[in-house]
Description:
- By secondary structure, the protein is α+β, with helices and mostly antiparallel strands.
- It has three domains: 42-106 and 328-490, Beta-lactamase (3-Layer(aba) Sandwich); 112-178 and 279-323, D-tyrosyl-trna(Tyr) Deacylase, Chain: A; 204-275, no CATH class.
- It is 29% helix and 21% strand.
- The protein has helices at 3-12, 23-32, 34-39, 49-57, 94-104, 143-155, 244-247, 280-294, 326-336, 339-348, 360-373, 397-408, 413-419, 479-490, and strands at 65-71, 79-81, 112-117, 126-127, 131-135, 160-161, 165-168, 204-211, 216-221, 233-237, 250-251, 259-260, 264-265, 271-275, 298-299, 303-306, 316-322, 381-382, 394-395, 439-446, 449-457, 463-471.
- The strands form six sheets. Strands 2-1-22-21-20 form a five-stranded antiparallel beta sheet, sandwiched between helices. It has a five-stranded mixed beta sheet with strand order 16-7-5-3-17, covered by helices on one side.
- α9 (326-336) packs parallel to α13.
- Keywords: Carboxypeptidase, Hydrolase, Protease.
- One of its GO terms (biological process) is peptidoglycan metabolic process.
Amino acid sequence: xxxxxxxxxxxxxxxxxxxxxxxxxxxxxxxxxxxxxxxxxxxxxxxxxxxxxxxxxxxxxxxxxxxxxxxxxxxxxxxxxxxxxxxxxxxxxxxxxxxxxxxxxxxxxxxxxxxxxxxxxxxxxxxxxxxxxxxxxxxxxxxxxxxxxxxxxxxxxxxxxxxxxxxxxxxxxxxxxxxxxxxxxxxxxxxxxxxxxxxxxxxxxxxxxxxxxxxxxxxxxxxxxxxxxxxxxxxxxxxxxxxxxxxxxxxxxxxxxxxxxxxxxxxxxxxxxxxxxxxxxxxxxxxxxxxxxxxxxxxxxxxxxxxxxxxxxxxxxxxxxxxxxxxxxxxxxxxxxxxxxxxxxxxxxxxxxxxxxxxxxxxxxxxxxxxxxxxxxxxxxxxxxxxxxxxxxxxxxxxxxxxxxxxxxxxxxxxxxxxxxxxxxxxxxxxxxxxxxxxxxxxxxxxxxxxxxxxxxxxxxxxxxxxxxxxxxxxxxxxxxxxxxxxxxxxx
Length: 492
């Protein structure tokens, strides 16, 4: 970071102090108490001094900012500013996805993935025909769960598969997805589209461990997959750690043998690197082949895309895998802002009462119908893919706090609240020490967007639903604005 940029960052970070009963506090009461709201209808809305100070310091125009704060009880102050304007929320949109999923699908919902065959293996363990691998849109199947599924197939007595693996992804009816379209980072797993047979987020994991004495950073794939070859190390550099992923200059022109043409900054210390380079069928091919061989099985076929025949009632289920329950999936999605889980989960909302392919139109319709039941105006909510990785999704802060208050009073409240990152403690709020331990906040960030949505408990023990969004070029510097909002609520 340049000296100039570093200076700006220090200037932009505004330390918020708890507002005490003073002339300023009295002005808060005038503007934000019920009586004050009625009196202020004739004048332009105002903001509490700490929030206004943060906006000024970070050069965020008021027109780019929306805010809603409402009490979860009948007591307390309500604060709204540009609150009906729909804005791009980035990953805070996952609040909507997770709330709708918990209510429409239920916290105990699980998804199945199955190996299905027209026949049982013979007495020698040979399966002479094709083997179907049928996905039902599991939001997450880790490499460990897939290994267990493969091992269960082997334990069923299958030793050799003569045919192909037919990958049935027909549970999702979605258009082809370009992972490079959003931000050009198509080899980052967060950009993957939905897949009814998603395995391990179609990603590879490398531990990067620098060795100063050797002058290199060693690369350790986990797990090691036969057919995927990595260099053992890459050179070290003395550069700063910023944008280290670009500094290593990955080259995926040979997807099974990626190269790293740059250097790894020593100052970074150990890092973990996730990447995706294969199509869905290619990934399944190398992973299944490796795991099947390690399990002692034989297979010389290919993975090809297809569909289980309509007249398959007499087919045999040879092995099954069950996903983690929805409660755990929502936890992982919100704590770590997992876009893949969000996209998969969003599609699961389509046609929940029918066993038919899921599509985006059906998922959106389900969310809009659910939102309408909460009396959220149609103009306040537009959802694209459920993850927030979109520039067409638009949500007002009023819509956010309506959902938050509804979920607070719902039977699914414990599962929902516990999924949100805790300030200064875990998830995407781990390094944000504002109101430490007293705020459950989902954050959102893409270019020209910053947002928060969640709950804050005040020093006096009151709880509030909070949502704030900045859209525009100033969003990149607006974290102190979000912190100011949380601090102001916490100090009430």
